[in-house]
C-alpha cells in the first residue's frame, strides 16, 4: 500500500486514516493545519534529534577509550574526565519548579501508580478503573493470606480471616474512641458526624461522606493521608449478611494515577501497531474505551467507571473520580518509525510523532464540559523516558512548545515526567529538572534500565557483579536517595510526583506488602505496581506512612547522597566465581531474555510474565531485557564466559521456554530448528551484538526482527 503525501510527509494510510477520521474530529483542529504543523515540526527538529543521538555515541566512544587506558582509575579521576568531556555538568544555583495547573493526584496525594501497555484495551480499562479496589477481594485472592484458595466455593474460614485483617487496618487508620471496628454493630450519621455504636472516631475529620440514609447508610466514606476508604453495607450480600455490622466490603482508593505505556511494555513497530496504541489512548481520553472480557465462562464488556457521588457530612454533594489520572508514556529520542517518512524518505523520530499525536488525542479530554475528565485542571501528562542529560530534556521541552503552538494550546499545558533511568541523567538530575522547570510534574527512578545503562556505559571498566549483587552495591542506594533529595531541593513536594520503580513479581503480594513500604518511607509519593490488585494492597502503605511528612523531614536534613557515590561502578571485586555460579547466572539471564523475546518477536506481546530460573514469574519488558542482555555481553567481553558456553546455554534454555509455553496455541517453538527461529536468533544477537547497540538498547534489533516476522520473511 502506497504512502499518502501531506505537506512533505509520506504517511501510512492506516495512520493517516485514523488521524483524519478518528483523532481530529472534535478537537477543533482541521486536517490541513495538523499535517502542515506536523511536517514543520519534523523537518525543524529531526536534525537536532539526530545530533543528540550522535553525541551519545561520541561520548560513549570516549568513555570506552578512557576506561581502556585507565583500568584502575578511581572516582576522582573518573569524575574529572567526565567533566572534561561534558558528560558531567556543573550544578547550577538553587531553584524550584514552576509547574502550574497540576491535578491533586499528582501534587497533593501520595499513592500507587499502575503501568500498563496501552495496546491492550482490557489492561488499559482495568488500569483506569483501578482507582478503586475491593480490599476483601485482593486479600482473599492472593498469597497475603497464605496459600492461594482452592477453586470452587467460597472458603468461609479464609473469608473470616480477611475480614479480621481488614478490621485491624480500619483500627489503625480510623481508630474509634473506646472500641474496635471488630466489635462494632452499627455505623450511622448524626448531625453531620459519624457514630460507630454511638462512639465517635478519634479523628472525626476523617469522616467525609456517605451514601443512602444517614441512619442506616449504604456506605460510609473515610479519608486518611488524602486517600479514601469506603465501607459498604449490604444485608443481602453473602458477606454482609453474616457480618454483625452488615459490612459487605471495604473499597480502597488505590491507583491514583496510571501510565498508559507506548514504550517499554508494547511492541509497536509500524503504523498498524501505532494506530492500536493511539486508538486505545483516544478511547481513554474520550471516555468510551470498551473491552470484551471472558471470565468464568461468560463474556462481558468492560467500560470505564463513572465518578462516585457521596453526601458530605454537611449535606452537600461530594464527587470523587472513578478513574485513575492517566499519564501517557511516549517513546524516547532513539527510535524512528516507518509509519511516517520525511521529504527525503527518512523515517521520522517516533518520539516526535508520539508527542504530536498523543497530545492531539488528549485534547478530547481538555475540551470536555461535562462528565468524567482525566485532568480537572486542563493538563496533559506525558512521561518521557530514556533521556540522557539536560540537553535532551531541553529538547523534549522544545518539542512540546512546538506541539502546543501547532495545536493552539496554552504554553505548558503538557506536563512532563522525567524518567531518571540513564546514568547521564542521574549525575545531572538537578539540571535535567531545571531544563523543564515549567513542565516537570514527575521524576521516577528505574532500577532496571538504569542498571542496563550502567553496564553499557562502563563496559570497559571490568566485569560486573552478578545481578543480585549489583542491587546490594552502594551506588544503587545513592541513586535512589539522590533522586528524592534532588526532587525535594527543586520543590517537587506538593507540586509533582517523586516516584519509585516497579514491583516485578505480580504473584508475590505477601512479599510486596512486606517490602514495598520502603518506597513511601523513602519519600516517594508514588511507586509502580503491576496490577490493580497490587495497587489496592500497596495503597495500605500510604495509609501507614504520611509521605509528605517524610518529605518535609528529608528536606530539612539535606542531601543523603552525592554524585561521587553514584559513580562507584558496581564491577565485581571478588571474581573467583565457580563454574556452577557462572552457569547459573548466564542461565537465569538467558531464560529471561528468551522468554520475553520469543513472545515479542512472534506475537507482538510487549510485556510478559516470564518464570525465572527459580520458577518465580517476573514481569519482563524491554528494561529487564536490556539489563540481562548487557550483563551477559559484559561477561563475554571480559572472558567470564565464552561464546560457546552462552550459545549452548541459550539453546538449552530455549527448550525450557518452549515447554513453559506449550499450552499457548499461538506459540512457535524455538527448538530444535534454532537457525530458522527469528526469535531465537534475535535473542542471541541481543547478547553477542550487545556492546555495539546504542547505549545497550534492545529496540533496534527487536523492531527489525518483528518487522521481518510481520512481513512474512
Describe this structure in words.
With 713 residues, this protein is an alpha/beta fold. It folds into 3 domains: 76-130 and 256-566, TIM Barrel (Alpha-Beta Barrel), CATH 3.20.20.360; 134-253, Malate synthase G - maily-beta sub-domain, CATH 2.170.170.11; 579-710, Malate synthase, domain III (Malate Synthase G, Chain: A, Domain 4), CATH 1.20.1220.12. The strands form 7 sheets. Strands 3-12-17-20-21-22-23-24 form an 8-stranded parallel β-barrel, surrounded by 5 helices. The chain is globular and about 75 Å long.
Features:
Malate synthase G - maily-beta sub-domain, 3 domains, 8-stranded parallel beta barrel, Malate Synthase G, Chain: A, Domain 4, alpha/beta, TIM Barrel, single chain, 26 strands
CATH superfamily of the largest domain, by name, is Malate synthase, domain 3
Strand order of the largest sheet: 3-12-17-20-21-22-23-24
Number of helices: 25
Span between termini:
18 Å
The helix content, as a percent range, equals 40-55%
Write the layout of secondary structure elements.
Layout: E1 4-6, E2 9-11, H1 13-23, H2 31-69, H3 75-84, H4 104-107, E3 111-117, H5 121-129, E4 132-134, H6 135-140, H7 156-173, E5 187-190, E6 193-196, E7 199-200, E8 207-213, E9 216-224, E10 227-233, E11 247-253, E12 257-261, H8 271-286, E13 290-295, E14 298-303, E15 308-311, E16 317-320, E17 325-329, E18 336-341, E19 347-349, H9 350-366, E20 380-384, H10 389-407, E21 414-420, H11 423-426, H12 429-434, E22 440-445, H13 447-457, H14 467-470, H15 474-489, E23 497-500, H16 509-515, H17 518-521, E24 526-529, H18 532-544, H19 547-557, H20 563-566, H21 579-603, E25 608-611, E26 617-620, H22 622-637, H23 643-660, H24 678-688, H25 699-710
Parallel strand pairs: 3-12, 3-24, 12-17, 17-20, 20-21, 21-22, 22-23, 23-24
Antiparallel strand pairs: 1-2, 2-18, 4-11, 5-6, 6-7, 8-9, 9-10, 10-11, 13-14, 15-16, 18-19, 25-26
